[in-house]
Amino acid sequence: SSDLVVLLGAFACGIPVVSTNVGGIPEIANESNSILVPPHDPEKLADAMHKMINKHREYNANTLRNNIIDKFSTQSVGKLLDDIYTNTIRAGKSD
């Protein structure tokens, strides 16, 4: 979804986020790179935004960026797909 693309873009720029805890977001956003709030809870969202304003400098921009590169770069995704294809071919040959 476009929300995930926005989060990945923010992390790639070294920027922590405030987001709702829905869909696939918790798979990439966690306490090390963001503040997650439950959906439909404007008070908790406002609290999280205030907290982020005060603590955003505590996040390491290079760490945020490197974590995304490690998981989602062309090289990382290519290696993952190559491993899947290789393991599938090997499994098919052993039958």
Structure description:
With 95 residues, the protein is mainly alpha-helical. Helix content is 64%, strand content 8%. It contains 5 helices and 2 strands; from the N terminus they run αβαβααα. Strands 1-2 form a two-stranded parallel ribbon. α4 (61-72) runs parallel beside α5. It is elongated and about 55 Å long. The termini are far apart.
Distance between the termini: 38 Å
Radius of gyration: 17 Å
Number of helices: 5
The quaternary organization reads as single chain
In spatial order, strands of the major sheet run 1-2
What's the number of extended β-strand segments?
Answer: 2
Helix/strand-derived category reads mainly alpha
Can you describe this structure in just a few lines?
This protein has 95 residues and is mainly alpha-helical. The chain has five helices and two strands.
Task: Lay out the secondary structure.
Blueprint: H1 2-12, E1 17-20, H2 25-28, E2 34-37, H3 42-55, H4 61-72, H5 74-93
Parallel strand pairs: 1-2
Helix pairs in contact: 4-5
Core attributes:
95 residues; mainly alpha; two-stranded parallel sheet; 5 helices; elongated
